[in-house]
């Protein structure tokens, strides 16, 4: 049985339109804690060495080349601190991850929005015995709004992530594609459906992860500053050489906005 994972995150975001320029500043802090893994013979193994605290800042700055075309740069830095040393590597995996991208956003009459970016990610480990890691980052997004009630969105993203409970790994590079349809039933209720696929490769070990998922969700407007959200997701993942695993997840949330 996979470990129970408890995760919480706070995010703050400020956006300003300055005429020809636009700025988006963000900050985040979070905590993730792993429970025990349980095996068929009822034995267990601890995963507390993967418990992490994170904090980061980032920003996106754009320049309107034309009324429908915006060039932008996006940068972020995130610090990740581990509670204990890795039992396989015998060091803590504390790191700072830097990401930088440049790209274009194209909008046509609020009906179609296209965006693409290219950049680099660099994970700098605090312990000198670990090899720092660099990856090319490429991201894309397409949004189609045929009318005021329906929104279709497709995305592709690249990210550098923590290796989780994979022994001996220092970094996980994930490539993910998602599709989502959102339908505004009335001013208070929005329904959503989604599907996704991802492929991840671990730095330091010959392990790969493949995952797909489908889900449904709803957003209910409580008032002008608060939405209640509910989501159900079914996913299947395969981490070589282990067999496939199924997962069902129910999420309830509250979104507060100004």
List the helices and strands and how they pair.
Elements: E1 5-18, E2 21-34, E3 37-38, E4 44-45, E5 52-66, E6 69-82, E7 95-108, E8 112-125, E9 133-144, E10 150-161, E11 171-186, E12 189-203, E13 208-223, E14 226-239, E15 245-256
Antiparallel strand pairs: 1-2, 2-5, 3-4, 5-6, 6-7, 7-8, 8-9, 9-10, 10-11, 11-12, 12-13, 13-14, 14-15
Based on helices, strands and strand pairing, what is the structural class?
A: mainly beta
Q: Which sequence of SSEs, written as H and E, runs from N to C?
A: EEEEEEEEEEEEEEE
How many distinct helices? 0
Q: What number is the mean pLDDT?
A: 93
Which geometry do the CA atoms define? Answer: globular
User: Based on the structure, what is the oligomeric state of the protein chains?
Assistant: single chain
Strand content: over 45%
Q: How far apart are the termini? A: 41 Å
Low-confidence stretches: none
Number-wise, the strands total: 15
Outline the structure in words.
It is globular and about 60 Å long. Helices cover 0% and strands 72% of the residues. The chain has strands spanning 5-18, 21-34, 37-38, 44-45, 52-66, 69-82, 95-108, 112-125, 133-144, 150-161, 171-186, 189-203, 208-223, 226-239, 245-256. A hairpin with a 2-residue loop joins strand 11 and strand 12. With 258 residues, the protein is mainly β.
Gist?
The protein is mainly beta.
Give me some keywords for this one.
single chain, 258 residues, mainly beta, two-stranded antiparallel ribbon
